[in-house]
Amino acid sequence: MHKVSFIGGGNMAAAIIGGLIASGTSPTDIEVVEINADARAQLSARFGVVTHTDLSQARLHPLIVLAVKPQTLPEVAAALASRLAGQLVISIVAGVRVADLARWLGGHRRIVRTMPNTPALVQAGVTGLYAPPDVDQDARSQAEAVLRAVGGVVWVEDESWLDAVTAVSGSGPAYVFYFIESLEAAAVAQGLPAATARQLALQTFFGAAKLALESGEEPAVLRQRVTSKGGTTERGIAALEAASVKAGIRQAVEAAGLRSVEMGDELGRLA
Q: Which among 23, 34, 58, 206 counts the fewest CB atoms within 10 Å?
């Protein structure tokens, strides 16, 4: 793994830094530019990485991870542009398209755009990655290694597919939390104590996801195995179907995807 410079030291950057160190990267091979003094202190104390208050102080290693707020990226990229000398720029900034970032970076095209999700905070995330055709395989492998530090990775061939990735895995944890919240509330409505309801809901989601991941079987097949004819699960699934839950999930993903497209358009109009 090459040395890495993080521009921005928020939660997602910290998660990736922690994952990189856990997988063998030396803290001395990582630098972080972060304007917030408390965040800098936490990063130094937690990981032992080098921190800077300003981009001008950074050495800028071969791998640069952009982890700032979307609205501040044009200004950050403009400051970074004159100092680039062939580095691979990995963006974890939501919604900013490669063409816009390349424009703000003064024409720099060695860019990989990524969309991680919040389970990365516990090294259980999944990240969608896209690179333009002129980014070589070595650079792609380097970007993949950085994001694998916090979970699985999925490459997409078309950048527009990242809007769907955002809608599914980027927003998806909120859908899962919504379902857990609803299952917990339903358990309480059935008379179970709140602590018991939460434990049952959380462990059921964790266990079902683990079974689906490790079995390698289609979720529909796993569902059918639980759904005995004439049993309780069959009755419950019928109620979900009657309530159009599956259609509601599709509508949620479609709505989130459309908003991702809108945000890309809005951010692209920034100076």
A: 206
